[in-house]
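In response to a reviewer's request, we include the raw inputs and outputs for one of the modeled complexes. The two entities were modeled together in a single run.
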Amino acid sequence: MHPFTYVAPRTLDEAVAVLEQHGERARPFAGGTDVLVQLRGGRFDLDAIVDLKGVPEATSLDLNGSLRIGAAVPCYRIYEDSAVAAAFPGLIDAASLIGGIQIQSRASLGGNLCNASPSADGICPLIVHSTVAVVQGPQGERRVPVEEFCTAPGVNVLGRGELLVALEVPAPARGFGAAYQRFIPRNEMDIAVAGVASALTLSDDGATIASGRIALAAVGPTPLFAAKASAFLAGKPATPETFAEAGEIASTEATPIGDMRGTAEHRIELVKVLTRRTLAIALGRAQSNR
Amino acid sequence: MTQQETPVRKVPVACTLNGQQTEFLAAPYQSLLEALREVVGLTGTKEGCNDGNCGACTVSLDGRIVDSCLVLAAEVDGKSVDTIEGMAPPHGLHPLQQAFLEEAALQCGICTPGFLVAARALLEREPHPDEHRIRLWLAGNLCRCTGYDKIVRAVQSAADKTT
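The model returned the following structure tokens for the whole complex.
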């Protein structure tokens, strides 16, 4: 492994300055659960690691109706915060199943997003919550919808000197519910063969879907926002038939490959099943949020 | 992983290690696991996969279990680290260690320090976890010898005895 220096800035400006100076030879660092493995695997070399855990904006978790998750906040802080867990069960679904306890002590949803793996468990739930990624760089701040953040496997929109500061999750509307599920052949500690996050908001009648969002993991080059299936949900009755049809539509938006984890055909079927199931869970949560 | 001597300057690390104030110099790219074993000389923490899958290198960092292969030594400056070496009282064994012996919850032993550190963290948080909870908590620790049942029984046994 190429030797690198360890930089622990105390401010965003310092972090941006170091990242800008080194360009692609430096990376922001939170839990290290991806970047250290990739460095050892020789995927890339770095001259500097920029630890964000001393930067307040990247380490705070603020719930005020909406939720602001610092990019370096580890998973356990999200699911162990009872107020956050009660308000955002769809995010907890992911935060509590990424890796094992040791990984959850370190890994962050921000890092999960920046790593830009197609199979990331954390990204699809953020997408269906209409989360915005707050990016800081040499030109100041910009905001990117999470579904536009990943551009290819392992590639994201961050440019030279830029880092992800935080994830801003809007306050759930009345009648909103969300859920995430993945399929793995084990019970835990595995990478999704396919995953689906679903969200829906019920109309005032409690029986009609006002709007919905569906996102798919491990069935395309990036986590995918299933635009057609999402649009289909609007105005439909919140019934198993609707959920099944949404799953069919979502499966047409998936572009999976076959690999050692599963065949493309298996993944297509999984999208249908997981869409149905996550919509049903989201409905239950939406009904208790009215 | 072996590291060549390099021009990158070493960084001083001052941490509380098993309750003792400890200072050492680490290369900035050195993992906590490497620093514990090769710099400090505490070889109880084991290297299994060195990529965060097996949990053999589990230590407690400020009260949370982590894979020390995925922590940089430089990060623990000012923090508290607890390893397997700090587990037993001066004379005797920790109840979990005793239970692992009595239940034959180990064979080759490479995974054992990680399991013990992880299981201790569970019992400190939840003194009476059920089997499902134990298995879930220990999912980040791999054992290729025991088939896990004996490990789960040992943790249950230790939990029962600390009532």
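As requested, we also summarize the result in words. The CA atoms of residues 229 and 248 of chain A lie 8 Å apart. Chain A has twelve helices and 14 strands.
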